[in-house]
Amino acid sequence: MDHAITRILLVDDEPSLLKMLGVYLGRLGYSVTLANSTEEAWAEVEAAPSGYAIAVLDGSMPGLSMEDLALKMLRANPSLCVIAVSGYSVNTTAIEAAAPGRVAVLQKPFAPEMLAAAVRRMLAAQEEAL
Asked: Among 47, 69, 78, 97, which has the highest number of CB atoms less than 10 A from its own CB?
């Protein structure tokens, strides 16, 4: 898959982390959209339901729970891959049921290279499903 057309939605309420990860993934050739709230993230997906290949979601943000946001996004875009990132234990059972083989979990703190590896794994899984 061509990175130039691979769009990733990064969702986190930590502005410095959001910016750093966005810059990192952008340098790898991905098209990255940043959202610092669950409402902003949903607005992005609602505006272009099939516009994103991957959503990277923080597990503990104000507003919608990560699970509710992910399930809402998956209803809008059934081929979406979800990477859940959190410093806490997260339950992704419902998300995994809605997107079998297209859910990954990264425990914070993580190195940007770990996120890049998870993105590559998710894109490979997405291609295999086609």
From this structure: 69
